[in-house]
Amino acid sequence: MLIIGIAGGTGCGKTTVVNHIMDELPNGEVGLISQDSYYNDLSYLSLDARSEMNFDHPDAIDFKLLVKHLKDLKKGKSIGQPMYDFVAHNRTDKTLLTHPKKVMLVEGILILTHPELRDMFDIKLFVDTDSDERLIRRLKRDISDRGRNLDDVLTRYQSTLKPMHDQFIAPTKVFADMIVPNNKYNMVAIDIIRNIITQKL
Ligand SMILES: Nc1ncnc2c1ncn2[C@@H]1O[C@H](COP(=O)(O)OP(=O)(O)O)[C@@H](O)[C@H]1O
Ligand SMILES: Nc1ccn([C@@H]2O[C@H](COP(=O)(O)O)[C@@H](O)[C@H]2O)c(=O)n1
């Protein structure tokens, strides 16, 4: 199994890069794990309390479960990947049956902060996009897809997203094998990554 970690700040385009890679590869040979699925279970808190949480700190992620699931997949076992609800700020009670594949992509803002997880990646990518561009993309996406309003996103950006990005996410760029500039769609980089994967397959 080839495991590729795809990191980068919120809105940089990780999911878009993942979709481009998966679109062109043989059906059924590439699987996906999203770090967002592994936010800690916050069912013990009220919705108001959950909405106040810092979701950009490494402690927000259940890395223990994420590492266990990746180990299980490497052993050839299928896993039940948790499913996340951004409107409820919590895991749902559903899971997504995820089978081991020749190539597993793991994407998320904080995946390179965790040493054990980082060591499991055969290839580490960091998708790099200017912060103003990321904020614009995040605003549009969170308002259209994640039930937020302008004030929610801007307040969170100032209080949490920017400081956490500067403290935890940006410094992990040094661990990347390849940095993917993504201020504009970067199909050249996608082709290079796809060729690397095809060779490994
Ligand atoms: N290179 C790009 N140029 C313009 N918009 C982009 C680009 N990459 C992604 N987007 C858009 O930005 C938003 C956030 O992208 P997404 O892939 O969800 O980022 P991430 O997973 O890193 O948070 C989406 O609406 C997506 O369509
Ligand atoms: N309940 C939540 C949980 C997380 N977020 C934000 O999601 C961002 C990470 O996802 P990307 O697809 O943007 O990489 C992260 O910055 C969290 O702030 C949220 O808004 N609500």
Summarize the structure.
Its EC number is 2.7.1.48. With 201 residues, this protein is α/β, with parallel strands linked by helices.
Biggest sheet, open or closed, and with what strands and sense?
Answer: 5 strands, parallel
Query: Mean pLDDT, nearest integer?
Result: 96
Q: What would you call the structural class?
A: alpha/beta
Q: Can you give the helix content as a percent range?
A: 40-55%
CATH class label: Alpha Beta
CATH H-level name... which superfamily?
P-loop containing nucleotide triphosphate hydrolases
Small molecules (ligands, ions, cofactors) in the structure? adenosine-5'-diphosphate, the ligand Nc1ccn([C@@H]2O[C@H](COP(=O)(O)O)[C@@H](O)[C@H]2O)c(=O)n1
CATH architecture: 3-Layer(aba) Sandwich
**N- to C-terminal separation?**
9 Å
Radius of gyration equals 16 Å
Number of helices: 7
Query: Based on CA inertia axes, which overall geometry fits?
Result: globular
State which percent range the strand residues make up.
15-25%
The SSE string, one letter per element, is: EHEHHEEEHEHHEH
Main location: cytoplasm
Pfam families: PRK (PF00485)
Domain Phosphoribulokinase/uridine kinase: 3-187
GO molecular function: uridine kinase activity
